[in-house]
Write a structure and sequence with these properties.
Largest sheet of chain B: 18 strands, antiparallel, barrel
Largest interface: A-B, 44 and 53 residues
Distance between the termini of chain A: 87 Å
Oligomer: heterodimer
Number of helices of chain B: 3
Structural class of chain A: alpha+beta
Order of helices and strands of chain A: HHEEEEEEHEEEEEEEH
CATH architecture of chain A: Clam
CATH superfamily of chain A: Lipoprotein localisation LolA/LolB/LppX
CATH class of chain B: Mainly Beta
Helix content of chain A: 10-25%
CATH architecture of chain B: Beta Barrel
Number of helices of chain A: 4
C-alpha cells in the first residue's frame, strides 16, 4: 500500500499547487472593473454630445447637448445642457454623485424652460429610459461596483483589440432593483481601461447591447467618441457621439450650480 | 443707436423692432451672428365647446374658432454680457371676445440685459421670476401676476405664457451651496382679467373703474441653500398685490368705482427632498395684513397657505400629487365661508414609444365657496422630432358660484399642431 501512497500524495500535492497557482494567476475581475470606474479622466472635461435615437419604425430623434463634468475629490458634478432641437433647447440637468462608500443616491435637478423652475428629480428605479433613449439612467450615471459580483471569464480579441471578458451578476440572480439588469457580460480593454462592449440581460433574456464604435486619445486620455446602445426588446438603437472633447479646462466650480441651469450655457 | 420699443405692438411694429434689435447686435464690432441663438414655435389650434349648448342663443357660438400663436426667443451672448428676448404673437377668432371676429396682438414679451461675474449675476429688464415648489397653485409665486383672460388654460400648458412679465432688476449672489436673490420690481403689473361677456368673464368684476396708481416698487429676497440633500428656500416680499380691489366712492352725489392696488407682505419657506419613492416638496407662506375684497370694500386679513406635493417617476409613468390649505385669520364674518379652504391636484402622465406618444390627465380641485373641479386630458404625438400634434379635453364641474364651476359651460375639446424651429 505504501508503495502507491507516496506517489499518490505527491501527485495530489502537485495538482493542488497547480490549481492554486492557476487561480491566483487569474485576473481579479472586481479590480478590473474598479480600474475602469476609477480610470483617470482628468480633473474636468467638456464634450458636445449628439444623442441620435432611431426607433424600430425608422423615426429618428436627434438631440444635441453640452456636457460638463468635474471631480470634487471623491464626488463628481455634471451638467448637461440641451441646445437642440428647439423644443428641448434650454433644458438643463445638474447631477451630483457621491463616493460609493457614502451609499447616497445621486442628487439631480432638472430645469424646464416652460415652467421657469428647477425641479428636483429622483428616480428610485434607474432602469427607466434617459430622455426616452435606449440608455437608462443607470447607464449614464457613474457605475456602482456593489451592484454586481464579478467573475473573470476569458480573454479574447475583439476586432483586433485584446479584451478581458467579465461576467457581472447579482447576488441572487434576480434583477438589480436599481439598474433593472440581472447579468452583464462586459468586455474590457485593460490597456485603456475602457468598456468596449456589453451584453445586458434581464432574467435570462438579452435585452440590450452596448458597443463602442470608436475611441480616440484626446489630451492624453482615452475617450469613447462614439457608442451605440441596441434595444433588443423594442427594436431600434441610440447612438452617442461625442465631439470637441476637452480635458482639464479649469472649469469653474460655479458652473455646476442652479444658476447655470437657469441661465444656460451659451 | 437704435431704440428698442417694449410696449405692446402691432405685428408690423414688432417685426420692425426685431430687425432693429438684430441690426444693433450685429453692428457693434465685438458682436457677431455666431453669438446669437434663436428658437421658437408656431402653433395652430382649433377649439370646440362641448356639453350643454342650450345656453347659447346662436348655436354657432359653440365653435370657439381657431387660434394661431407663435413665439421667438432671440438670445445674444458675448463673454459676460447677454441680451435675451422673447417675442410672442397671437391671432385668434372670437374665442377671446364675443364681439370681435378676429383679434391679434404681438409684443416683445420679455427683454433682459444680463451681466455676470464669478459670484454675481445682474439681470435688468422685463422678465419673470418663478418662486416656490408648487405646480398650478401659486402659494409663493407672487412676483409676476397671471393672465386670466382665458382662465388658467394658458398657465396649465406653459407657465411662462400664463405669467405676465414685468420690469425688474434681479441681482443674484452665489457662494458654494448658498444663493441670494434680490429683486426690485418697478411698476405694479395688474392681474389681467377677462373682458366682460367673454368666455371666462368673472361675474361682478367691474369693467369701468377709475384706475389705481401703478407707480409702485416691490422688493423681494430669496435665499436658497442645500443641506443634506434638501433644497431649502426662504422668501420675503414687500410690495403690492397685482389683484385689483374695488370700492364705491361717492363724489358730488355721483358714485364711481375706484380701483385699488394694495400693499402685500409675504414671508415664506419651501423645500424639496428626495424620499424613498420620489420627491417631497412643500411651500408655506404667511401673508401679513393682506387686503381682500369684501362686498363694495376691502378688508385686511392674515393668511397662512401651506402646500405639500409628491412627485414619483417610475419608468414611463410620472405621478404628481398636491394638496394645499389656506387658513384666514381675521374677525370679519365676510370670510366665514373662506376661513379654511382646501385645494388639491393630481396628474398622471404615461409615455409610449420612447416619449414619442404622451398621454396626461390633470385634475384640479378647490372648495373655495363650494367644491368644484377641473379636468384636463390630452394626448401628444411627435409626428417628427420638431413637430407635434395634440388633442385634448378641458372640463369644469361644480356649482355656478364656485371657482371652477362658474365655467361649467366652457367645457371644450381642442386639437393643435405645433412646429418648432
Amino acid at each position: 500500500m505504501s508503495f502507491f501512497l507516496k506517489p499518490l500524495v505527491t501527485g495530489a500535492l502537485l495538482l493542488t499547487s497547480a490549481m492554486l497557482t492557476y487561480a491566483s494567476a487569474q485576473p481579479d475581475a472586481t479590480a478590473i472593473i474598479k480600474n475602469v470606474k476609477d480610470r483617470d479622466q482628468g480633473l474636468d472635461r467638456y464634450s458636445e454630445v449628439d444623442l441620435i435615437q432611431t426607433m424600430s419604425d425608422g423615426f429618428v430623434r436627434s438631440r444635441t447637448l453640452k456636457m460638463f463634468e468635474k471631480e470634487f475629490g471623491a464626488e463628481r458634478k455634471g451638467l448637461l445642457y440641451f441646445i437642440a432641437p428647439s423644443n428641448t433647447a434650454g433644458t438643463g440637468l445638474l447631477m451630483q454623485s457621491y463616493a460609493e462608500v457614502d451609499n447616497k443616491e445621486d442628487d439631480q435637478w432638472l430645469y424646464l424652460p416652460a415652467l421657469r423652475k428647477i425641479k428636483r428629480i429622483a428616480t428610485n428605479s434607474k432602469e427607466g429610459p434617459f430622455l426616452g433613449t435606449d440608455f437608462s439612467f443607470a447607464d449614464i450615471e457613474r457605475m456602482k461596483i456593489s451592484d454586481y459580483q464579478y467573475a473573470f471569464k476569458n480573454e479574447q480579441s475583439l476586432e483586433g483589440t485584446k479584451v478581458t471578458v467579465i461576467e457581472a451578476t447579482t447576488e441572487n440572480g434576480l434583477e438589480n432593483p436599481r439598474t433593472g439588469y440581472s447579468r452583464r457580460m462586459i468586455y474590457v480593454d485593460q490597456e485603456k481601461n475602457l468598456i468596449l462592449k456589453e451584453d445586458i440581460f434581464r432574467a435570462s433574456r438579452l435585452i440590450k447591447k452596448f458597443t463602442v464604435v470608436s475611441t480616440k486619445e484626446i489630451d492624453g486620455f482615452w475617450t469613447v467618441t462614439e457608442a451605440k446602445m441596441d434595444n433588443l426588446m423594442d427594436g431600434g438603437f441610440t447612438q452617442l457621439i461625442r465631439k470637441n472633447t476637452k480635458y482639464n479646462q479649469s472649469l469653474k466650480d460655479s458652473l455646476f450650480n442652479q444658476r447655470t441651469l437657469r441661465k444656460g450655457v451659451k | 443707436m437704435a431704440r428698442i420699443i417694449v410696449d405692446k405692438l402691432t405685428m408690423k411694429a414688432l417685426c420692425t423692432n426685431m430687425l432693429l434689435l438684430i441690426t444693433l447686435v450685429i453692428s457693434v464690432p465685438s458682436m457677431s451672428l455666431e453669438n446669437i441663438s434663436m428658437k421658437g414655435f408656431v402653433r395652430g389650434e382649433h377649439l370646440q365647446r362641448i356639453g350643454n349648448q342650450d345656453i347659447f342663443e346662436d348655436k354657432t357660438q359653440a365653435s370657439l374658432g381657431s387660434t394661431v400663436d407663435g413665439k421667438i426667443e432671440l438670445d445674444w451672448a458675448y463673454e459676460d454680457f447677454s441680451i435675451d428676448t422673447i417675442s410672442y404673437g397671437k391671432y385668434r377668432s372670437r374665442y377671446h371676445n364675443n364681439d370681435a371676429d378676429m383679434e391679434h396682438d404681438a409684443e416683445i414679451r420679455e427683454w433682459v440685459f444680463g451681466y455676470e461675474s464669478e459670484n454675481w449675476q445682474y439681470r435688468l429688464g422685463k422678465q419673470q421670476i418663478a418662486w416656490g415648489k408648487g405646480d398650478y397653485f401659486r402659494i409663493i409665486d407672487v412676483i409676476n401676476p397671471l393672465d386670466l383672460t382665458e382662465s388658467l388654460i394658458p398657465y396649465l400648458d406653459d407657465y411662462s405664457l400664463g405669467r405676465l412679465p414685468r420690469e425688474m432688476l434681479v441681482v443674484e449672489y452665489f457662494q458654494d451651496d448658498i444663493e441670494y436673490q434680490f429683486i426690485t420690481a418697478f411698476k405694479t403689473q395688474r392681474t389681467e382679467y377677462p373682458e366682460p361677456e367673454t368666455d371666462f368673464s368673472i361675474t361682478g368684476l367691474p369693467s369701468n373703474s377709475a384706475s389705481a396708481d401703478t407707480d409702485n416698487i416691490d422688493l423681494a429676497l430669496r435665499i436658497r441653500f442645500f443641506i443634506d440633500s434638501t433644497d431649502i428656500d426662504l422668501y420675503a416680499f414687500s410690495g403690492y398685490s397685482p389683484d385689483s380691489l374695488f370700492t364705491l366712492e361717492e363724489d358730488n352725489s355721483q358714485t364711481t368705482i375706484q380701483e385699488h392696488l394694495e400693499k402685500r407682505n409675504v414671508i415664506a419657506v419651501s423645500f424639496a427632498r428626495p424620499i424613498a419613492f420620489g420627491v417631497l416638496r412643500s411651500d408655506m407662506a404667511y401673508y401679513l395684513d393682506e387686503a381682500v375684497q369684501s362686498g363694495n370694500t376691502f378688508e385686511r386679513i392674515s393668511k397662512l397657505e401651506v402646500l405639500m406635493g409628491l412627485d414619483i417617476i417610475e419608468d414611463e409613468w410620472t405621478y404628481n400629487l398636491q394638496a394645499s390649505v389656506s387658513q384666514v385669520y381675521g374677525e370679519s364674518d365676510a370670510f366665514a365661508s373662506q376661513k379654511n379652504t382646501k385645494s388639491a391636484s393630481a396628474s398622471i402622465q404615461k409615455e409610449w414609444s420612447r416619449q414619442r406618444l404622451t398621454s396626461s390627465l390633470l385634475w384640479l380641485y378647490s372648495d373655495s365657496n363650494r367644491s368644484s373641479n377641473m379636468l384636463k386630458y390630452n394626448v401628444k404625438y411627435d409626428w417628427r422630432s420638431d413637430s407635434q400634434f395634440e388633442i385634448g379635453l378641458i372640463a369644469y364641474d361644480g356649482p355656478v358660484n364656485s371657482l371652477y364651476g362658474m365655467y361649467d359651460d366652457q367645457d371644450r375639446v381642442y386639437i393643435n399642431f405645433k412646429q418648432s424651429f
